[in-house]
Amino acid sequence: MTETPEDIANLYSRARIEWTRYWDFSASRKQVRQQLRLGVVRAPLEWPSTALPVAEFPSQPQEQIAQVQLQEATIKDPDPQPEQKSQVQATEIEPQGASEPERGPQAESLPQTTQVAATRWYALRSIFTPVQASVAPSSFPAFEQRPPIVVVFSLAGGVGKTCLVATLGRVLSALAEHVLLAETAACGILPFYFGSRELRPGVVRTFFPPGAFGEDCDAPVQMLNLQGEGSPEDGNQQDPLLADLLRDGRGANRIVVDVATANRKWMTRMLSLRPTLLVPILPDMSSVACLGSLEALDAGSANGEKALYLLNQFDASSPLHRDVRAILQQQLGDRLLPFVLRRSSLVSEALAEGMTVIDYAPGSEIAADYHDLAGWLRSLSAPATAGSGGRWSER
C-alpha cells in the first residue's frame, strides 16, 4: 500500500475490516429530519464499548452482521400498535398545547426585603435613588450619638465668653480632643484667637497648630459661624441651624458654642440640645444683677439641669471680689465652680498677637487656670469616641 487514501471510504475499503461500515452522515441527517416531520424521534442506540470483554462479542457470519444496523423507523399508521412501539424505540413529540407543559425546577423562594434592609447599602442605593439615599440635612442624631455640647452664655457683655471658648478649645486640643467651636455673633472674633484675619460665616474652618503634624502634635480645631434665622415655622419641624451644627460636629469629640450676648432666642434654641450650660460672671455689680434673669431662662431647660457659673477675671487681693464670691457661694451652692479664672493682662496681649494665652504664655497662672477648667469639664462629660463603621464626608 504505497498511496495514502484520499478519503475515509477508500481507507475502509482497503483495510477490509469486518464489522465495519462507512456511514453516510449526510444521509443520517436526512433520516432524522424526516422522522421529525413525521412526529417521531428515534432513541439513540447504545454502541458496544471497546473496553468490554471480547467474549461478549463472538464472531458472527456476514449475514448476521448485516442485521446490526440502525433500525429504520417506518411509520405506516399515525397510531402504531403497542407491539410496534416496542420494536421501534421512539418518543412521540406532542404538539404544543396538547398537554401540560413541562415544568422546570422550581425557583427558590427569595426572602422578602425588610424595612431595615431597605435602609442599608448607602452607596449602592445612592446610585439609583440619590435623593432617597441622602441623609436629610435637618435630621437630628440621637442624643446618645451626639458629642458632648457646652454652651457658654451671658446676659451681660464683656464677661469674656469668646476668650473662654477659644482658650478652652485650645486646651482640649492639647489633650488630643477634636473640638468644634461655634459662635452665633455676626462679628465674632473667635477666629482671631487662632491666627485668622477674616470672618467666613457658614463655613467650617479647620485650624492646625504650628509645627509638623504628627502623633505628638495637638489636635486641629474646627470652627463654625452660625448665621441666619433659620428657625422652624412650627413646632413639628426641626431647627435647620441646629441640624447643621450637629452634622458638622459628627466627627468631633466635643462641641463648644459661644452664644451672642443677651440673645435669648438663640439660647432657647440651644437648650433643646440638652447641653452643659456654662455662664461666666465677673465679680462686679453689672454681672451679678443678671443672675435672676439667667435663672428664669435656665428654668426652661429641656434636661432639667441648672446652669453652672464660673468667676472670671478674679483678683484675690480685692476685698470686693472676695465678698462677691462669698455671696455667690451662698446663693448658687455647688453650681458655682470651686476654682476661678484669675485676672491677667496676658489674655489681651495674646489676642493682640493672634493666639490664646496657652500659646502666648504656657507657664502662666492663667494658663494653669484654664487647664483646671478643661480637666473639670472632662470629668463632667467624657469626650465622644469615634465609633467603627463611620462614613467619611467631604467638607
What secondary-structure arrangement, pairings included, does this model have?
Elements: H1 8-15, H2 25-38, E1 40-42, H3 62-65, H4 82-87, E2 90-92, H5 115-118, H6 122-128, H7 130-133, E3 149-152, H8 161-174, E4 179-183, E5 205-207, E6 221-225, H9 240-248, E7 254-258, H10 264-271, E8 276-281, H11 285-288, H12 291-298, E9 308-314, H13 319-332, E10 341-342, H14 346-352, H15 357-360, H16 365-380
Parallel strand pairs: 3-7, 3-8, 4-6, 4-7, 8-9, 9-10
Antiparallel strand pairs: 1-2, 5-6
Helix pairs in contact: 8-16
Describe the structure.
The chain is of the alpha/beta class and 395 residues long. It is built from 16 helices and 10 strands. The protein has helices at 8-15, 25-38, 62-65, 82-87, 115-118, 122-128, 130-133, 161-174, 240-248, 264-271, 285-288, 291-298, 319-332, 346-352, 357-360, 365-380; strands at residues 40-42, 90-92, 149-152, 179-183, 205-207, 221-225, 254-258, 276-281, 308-314, 341-342. Strands 5-6-4-7-3-8-9-10 form an 8-stranded mixed β-sheet, sandwiched between helices. Strand 9 (308-314), helix 13 and strand 10 form a beta-alpha-beta unit. Helix 8 packs across helix 16 (365-380). It is elongated, with a radius of gyration of 46 Å.
Q: Can you summarize the main beta sheet? A: 8 strands, mixed
Mean pLDDT: 74
> What is the overall shape?
elongated
Distance between the termini: 89 Å
Helix content: 25-40%
N-to-C order of helices and strands = HHEHHEHHHEHEEEHEHEHHEHEHHH
Can you list the strand order of the major beta sheet? 5-6-4-7-3-8-9-10
Question: Radius of gyration from the CA trace?
Answer: 46 Å
DSSP summary, beta strand count: 10
- Beta-strand portion reads 5-15%
Please work out how many helical segments DSSP would assign. Answer: 16
Q: Which residues sit in consecutive blocks of at least 5 with pLDDT less than 50?
A: 20-25, 47-58, 65-76, 82-95, 131-138
Assign the structural class, choosing from mainly alpha, mainly beta, alpha/beta, alpha+beta, or little secondary structure.
alpha/beta
